Amino acid sequence: MTFINYAAREINCKIVYYGPGLCGKTTNIQFIYERTNPVAKGKLISLATETDRTLFFDFMPLDLGTIQGFKTRFHLYTVPGQVFYDASRRLILKGVDGVIFVADSQESRFEANIEAIQNLKDNMKTYGYDLMAVPYVLQLNKRDLPTAVEADRLVNALRVKNEPVFEAVATSGAGVFETLKAMARMVLLNLRQRSGAKTSVTP
Amino acid sequence: MSAELILFEEEYERIHDAITRLKRDANALSVYMIEKSGQQIAAVGQIDDIDATALASLTAGNVAATEGLARLVGEKEFSSLFHEGERQNIHITVVGGRVILLVVFDEGSSLGLVRLRVRKATGELAEIMEQVKSKAAAGVVMGGHDSPFADITDEDIDNLFAD
């Protein structure tokens, strides 16, 4: 949920990285953290197991600068990808402003991607959110692997609407910022569109 | 997608005053008000030593997980949480179903006192949040404020990524 604070002149938006287990959600966020100017970021929080699998979520706040005099801050979250953490995954979606779906390009994870997108739709519905109406980007990760499926085949199977698609190698950072930028742009344009529909009155 | 939360100066000042009183009355170290999706709304007291953004995010996660637990055992919610440390303790309450009140205190106070003062403050805070909600629902833009989004240009957005 976008939080507009007139007192502090701040806009806060929540972006969630979603996808099947081991698709690279945490790697995306870690790359962003490593490559961001220290003054523009807060702490990276990872609630993970001893084997570095996400247990609850990863989180980092990212300041993108000022827009119309308001400090614009994005809160980036990942969900735990493993199937049995579904209850935790659902909790992270609360108040989401935009979703980045990170797909694992490997042939062996083809079905897992499809199941994760269905799971995303189902979990969005529990809050009354409609994936078709929320800013949404598809990232095809692990494009460098020899077992990666052709991008066209993945897009055909995974695209849910006319969302932008980015090919990525999160371990090297390729496509990571491009994905995030597209998401941020969509969220802000969505806010502009919604603000235009509002009635302004002076009491 | 959920509606945005819009906080104007008037309600912010009222929230700030209410949690300042709570901090004083409960003899607490600090008090935070946090939105359930993890955004900090206001904070008072010894707040410079704590990463408030991380605190807000973890608190929201904590509350969300606890609500999940409550539903599993057939409860609507566990209305308050208490974490006891060696030197400092944290008391967490959900206010009006939408925001979270977090109080940090040490041996200068007690759980009983904090609970009593929190209970007293929640009514006022819930009422303020209702006002915030009704203003947003009415699409009211107060005191000459315009939506900061209405005039966003493509150039504004591009500039955000200039670095």
Structure, briefly:
Chain A is α/β, with parallel strands linked by helices and 203 residues long.
Provide a descriptive summary of the structure in words.
The complex is a heterodimer of chains A (about 200) and B (about 160). Chain A is an alpha/beta fold and about 200 residues long. Chain A contains five helices and eight strands; from the N terminus they run E-E-H-E-E-E-H-E-H-E-H-E-H. In chain A, strands 1, 2, 3, 4, 5, 6, 7 and 8 form an eight-stranded mixed beta sheet that branches. Mean pLDDT of chain A is about 90; it is low at about 195-203. Chain B has helices at about 10-25, 50-70, 110-140, 155-160; strands spanning about 5, 30-35, 40-45, 80-85, 90-95, 100-105. Chain B has a five-stranded antiparallel beta sheet with strand order 3-2-6-5-4, with helices on both faces. In chain B, about 45% of the residues lie in helices and about 20% in strands. In chain B, helix 1 (about 10-25) packs antiparallel against helix 3. The model of chain B has no long low-confidence stretch (mean pLDDT about 90). Classes of the chains: A alpha/beta (about 200), B alpha+beta (about 160). At the A-B interface, strand 1, strand 2, strand 4, strand 5 and helix 2 of A face strand 1, helix 1, helix 2 and helix 4 of B.
- Ranges of chain B with pLDDT <50 over ≥5 residues? none
Give, in order, the helices and strands of chain B: EHEEHEEEHH
Q: Helix segment count of chain B?
A: 4
**Judging from the principal axes of the Cα atoms, what is the shape of chain B?**
globular
User: What is the global morphology of chain A?
Assistant: globular
Distance between the termini of chain A: 26 Å
* Main sheet summary of chain B: 5 strands, antiparallel
Quaternary state of this entry equals heterodimer
Total count of strands of chain B: 6
Short key terms for the protein model shown above:
A: 203 residues; alpha/beta; eight-stranded mixed β-sheet; 8 strands; globular; B: 163 residues; alpha+beta; 4 helices; 6 strands
